[in-house]
Amino acid sequence: MLSEKMQAAMNKQINAEMYSAYIYLSMSAFFADKNLMGFANWMRIQAKEEMIHAMKFYDFIVERRGRVLLEPIAGVATEWDAPLAVFENAFAHEQKVTGMINDLVNLAIKEKDHAANSFLQWFVDEQVEEEASADAIVQQLKMVGDSPTVLFLLDREMAQRQLGAPAAGGAA
Ligand SMILES: [Fe+2]
Ligand SMILES: [Fe+2]
């Protein structure tokens, strides 16, 4: 059985992962509107991965005979100044999520919930990749500067990303 505290925290994390999916989907729509379909593809896959994360928490709660309780998902931004601003936002968001995962691990240790702690280790590793891939693209976009040609080439590279495959422009 999950403790009340652990169940509440994991339900909160389902919401955070769904919110992540929502924000990345909004970023995808923004890029599609700017005709940067490679970037739009990258963000759309990112959104799908976040939904997979949400379902991992969902399934874990059900497996442990807890109760999944879905809360409303908060609204997300729809406009950014430039592609760089989008990825800076994504990087900052992933750093925030890493903090949430670390808090969950701390709670699992406090509650002596070894199964939850073990389950959460996948997310600890995943967050290292998530931060690295967003940051790698931030760095690349800084090098792009005001060059539409280089942005076009990077967009083509971003179009290569597939679900579950290493991400173009950074770590998996
Ligand atoms: Fe996630
Ligand atoms: Fe993420």
Report on this model:
It is a single chain. By secondary structure, the protein is mainly alpha-helical. Helix content is 74%, strand content 0%. The protein has five helices and no strands. The protein has helices spanning 4-33, 37-63, 83-110, 114-144, 148-158. Helix 1 (4-33) packs antiparallel against helix 3, helix 2 runs parallel beside helix 5 and helix 3 (83-110) runs antiparallel to helix 4. The protein starts with a helix and ends in a 14-residue tail after the last helix. Mean pLDDT is 95; it is low at 168-172. The structure holds fe (ii) ion (FE2) (2 copies). Residues 17, 20, 50, 53, 97 line the site of one fe (ii) ion. Residues 20, 50, 94, 97, 130 line the site of one fe (ii) ion.
State the helix count.
5
| Span of the ends, CA to CA | 34 Å
Radius of gyration: 17 Å
Mean pLDDT: 95
Query: Which ions, cofactors or small ligands are bound in this entry?
Result: fe (ii) ion
Q: Order of SSEs, N→C?
A: HHHHH
Overall geometry comes to elongated
Work out the number of β strands: 0
Estimated structural class: mainly alpha
Helix share, percent? over 70%
Beta-strand content: under 5%
**In terms of per-residue confidence, which ranges show pLDDT below 50 for 5 or more consecutive residues?**
168-172
**Largest sheet, if any?**
none
Provide a brief overview of the structure.
The chain has helices at 4-33, 37-63, 83-110, 114-144, 148-158.
What secondary-structure arrangement, pairings included, does this model have?
Elements: H1 4-33, H2 37-63, H3 83-110, H4 114-144, H5 148-158
Helix pairs in contact: 1-2, 1-3, 2-5, 3-4
The structure holds fe (ii) ion (FE2) (2 copies).
